[in-house]
Structures are given as structure tokens and as C-alpha cells.
Specification:
This protein starts with 7 loop residues before the first helix and ends with a helix. By secondary structure, it is mainly α.
Length: 82
């Protein structure tokens, strides 16, 4: 039998590292997706507000909606870490 030399502490440290990578990916990729989503929404909202000031509230609401995706990513990251 070959002794690989892995101990319980090494396995636990590796698992914690993988959890941290998963949590970072959860927040990072949702942030990237939100940025891409707000790219078009923000430009359209500014254009609509420039033409008609009455749609400012609706434009602000549509700009804030993609931000909830990052909150979901943060919740997933916290669930992975704790």
C-alpha cells in the first residue's frame, strides 16, 4: 500500500479552500452578470429619463432590479462558508 501522506488536517484545509473558492465564484460571477445586465438597462434608463422626466421612478426601479442577483450570490456564498 502506498502512503500518499495526506492527513486529516490537509483534507479539511483543502475542503475549506474549495468552499472559499466556491463562495468567491458565487459573488464574482453574479456581480459580473449584474454588470452586464445593467449595461443595457442603465443606458436605456438614462435615455428615457432624458426624453421624459416622468419615467424617472420606473427607470430607477428597472436599474435596481438586477442588483438583487448579487444579493442572491452573497446569500449563496454565506451559505457555503457557514
Amino acid at each position: 500500500m502506498v502512503d500518499v501522506g495526506t492527513t486529516l488536517e490537509m483534507v479539511q484545509a483543502s475542503q475549506m479552500g474549495m468552499q472559499a473558492i466556491g463562495a468567491g465564484l458565487a459573488v464574482g460571477l453574479t456581480g459580473l452578470g449584474t454588470g452586464i445586465a445593467e449595461l443595457g438597462i442603465g443606458a436605456a434608463a438614462v435615455g428615457a429619463t432624458a426624453e421624459n422626466r416622468d419615467v424617472f421612478g420606473l427607470a430607477l426601479l428597472l436599474t435596481v432590479i438586477p442588483e438583487t442577483i448579487v444579493i442572491f450570490g452573497l446569500v449563496v456564498a454565506l451559505l457555503l462558508l457557514f
